[in-house]
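Researcher: Let's do a round of design. I'm pasting the structure tokens now; please hold your answer until I've finished.
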């Protein structure tokens, strides 16, 4: 793979707690990931992204980091992580890991040192310790809200548990204090962390909450409507005091210089929510991040006009600075695409757990959307289990849920555990092959084994076979490695058709998806891939049913 492998790579996200458990404690681990690397290589992905694997109290799925230079003991140790990177490289797989620069765990050595002092001490300078408002500072410094619900401020107490009149900032959970990125010690520490892992072979980082490091001077009010809460969203509007401040770009330029010190250069992908195409493109300038996540595409409903608009806007925004677009349908934070499209079809909200919805229709649409996404130019992300067509597990009991926002919002939000249920490797109960003892940190539903890797390995029509074929075609077809695409006009406005390649060349590939309600005849050459079994090839093309997608020879 070349040094610009990230421009067209398919990257597979691993949530380590839920991927594979080697030691039988019910929690996935580094050894489990190593044991399944050949599966990932055979699947055909180009790289893996490992969600936080660092030492952590695990109050927020590992995104509350206690020590960035240590692997959490539940997962293994640094030596095992280095061995994983080495084994992956032997199989042609790159490895990127999460990094969480906005905040640390309240168990981090810096925060514990700060708690042992009083506000105004040098230890507190590494965080945001701000005097409260009202008599004696009894109210928070401003109206900022936590993304997980409630105030973004918690009081700083003295050694006896009394109020000090000062508060510390946490844009997420109270166990995740925000770092002060205006302080040179913070900047130097993270640049050293980057080098620590790059020197151990890591190919890059996915940067969590890449927009929030710099806060507006003076901590002005956001002027949120009374009673409004942030909820689990990082969507931003222009001028917010805690997101997308201009100074954040200085951080990414410094990080890019660290990445470029190495041979080959290391890679960054940012979790970026921006208020405009220009704002998003600013993160993708040649001296900043290589790619950013495409949340507009990820959350686009099953709507032909909106989908085409998002694709056009994504390509245009990235093209402003010569960056590739990225495409993603699932992650550890959002409901599975199959369930999301089932809810769309039923006219229900994404967090509506009142019933299963039209799951069969969601399954069809999920398959089609995955095939269509993999046919777009740029890089793509698959979240573990997406290649199996897994559904969202809404029916988790409240006592099993571990998302901190679930408790902070009294169950109204914080439903991310439903996409974090361990993936099924076999159809054997209990545990579906997740580990040797059958234990599982989140309970698996009764239908899990029917969607397992072992069951689908025996099927030529399952989602796994579809994804394997699509990924092999991406590597084999020069047209699918080219950077551009052209829309092809259709009589039926509910059908999206695009051409990859030289716009008429023999090696072109046509990618199409039917978002309407009627079967259409689609002109083209040989059928290369179809999202659903039974799609009929006819002279000069195929009959494309509703809620399906195909790749054809151009």
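Researcher: That's everything. Go ahead.
Model: Designed sequence:
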């Amino acid at each position: 793979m070349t040094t610009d492998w990230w421009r067209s790579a398919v990257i597979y996200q691993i949530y380590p707690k839920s991927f594979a458990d080697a030691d039988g404690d019910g929690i996935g681990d580094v050894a489990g990931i190593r044991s399944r690397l050949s599966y990932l290589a055979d699947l055909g992905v180009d790289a893996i992204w490992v969600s936080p694997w660092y030492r952590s109290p695990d109050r927020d799925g590992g995104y509350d980091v206690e020590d960035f230079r240590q692997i959490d003991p539940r997962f293994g140790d640094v030596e095992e992580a280095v061995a994983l990177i080495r084994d992956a490289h032997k199989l042609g797989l790159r490895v990127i890991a999460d990094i969480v620069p906005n905040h640390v765990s309240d168990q981090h050595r810096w925060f514990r040192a700060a708690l042992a002092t009083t506000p105004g001490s040098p230890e507190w300078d590494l965080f945001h310790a701000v005097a409260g408002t009202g008599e004696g500072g009894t109210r928070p410094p401003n109206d900022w809200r936590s993304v997980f619900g409630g105030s973004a401020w918690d009081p700083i107490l003295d050694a006896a548990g009394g109020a000090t009149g000062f508060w510390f900032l946490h844009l997420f959970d109270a166990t995740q204090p925000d770092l002060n990125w205006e302080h040179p010690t913070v900047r130097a520490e993270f640049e050293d962390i980057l080098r620590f892992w790059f020197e151990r072979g890591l190919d890059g980082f996915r940067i969590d909450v890449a927009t929030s490091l710099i806060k507006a001077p003076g901590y002005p009010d956001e002027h949120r409507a009374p009673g409004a809460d942030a909820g689990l969203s990082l969507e931003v509007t222009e001028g917010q005091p805690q997101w997308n401040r201009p100074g954040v770009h200085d951080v990414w330029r410094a990080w890019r210089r660290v990445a470029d010190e190495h041979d080959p250069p290391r890679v960054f992908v940012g979790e970026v929510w921006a208020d405009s195409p220009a704002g998003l493109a600013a993160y993708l300038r040649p001296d900043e991040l290589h790619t950013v996540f495409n949340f507009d595409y990820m959350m686009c409903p099953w709507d032909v006009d909106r989908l085409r608009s998002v694709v056009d806007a994504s390509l245009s925004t990235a093209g402003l600075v010569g960056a590739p677009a990225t495409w993603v349908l699932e992650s550890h934070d959002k409901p599975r695409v199959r369930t999301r499209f089932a809810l769309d079809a039923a006219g229900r909200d994404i967090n509506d757990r009142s019933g299963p919805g039209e799951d069969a229709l969601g399954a069809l649409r999920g398959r089609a959307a995955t095939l269509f996404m993999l046919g777009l130019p740029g890089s793509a992300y698959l979240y573990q289990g997406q290649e199996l067509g897994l559904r969202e597990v809404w029916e988790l009991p409240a006592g099993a849920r571990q998302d901190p926002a679930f408790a902070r919002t009294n169950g109204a939000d914080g439903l991310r555990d439903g996409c974090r249920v361990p993936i099924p490797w076999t159809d054997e109960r209990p545990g579906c092959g997740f580990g040797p003892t059958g234990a599982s940190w989140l309970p698996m539903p009764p239908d899990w084994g029917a969607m397992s890797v072992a069951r689908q390995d025996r099927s030529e029509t399952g989602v796994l076979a579809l994804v394997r074929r699509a990924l092999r075609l991406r590597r084999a077809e020069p047209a699918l490695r080219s950077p551009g695409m052209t829309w092809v006009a259709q009589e039926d406005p509910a059908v999206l058709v695009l051409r990859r390649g030289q716009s008429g060349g023999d090696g072109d590939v046509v990618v199409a998806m039917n978002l309407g309600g009627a079967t259409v005849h689609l002109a083209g050459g040989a059928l290369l891939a179809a999202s659903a079994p039974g799609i009929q090839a006819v002279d000069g093309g195929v009959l494309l049913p509703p809620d399906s997608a195909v790749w054809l020879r151009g």
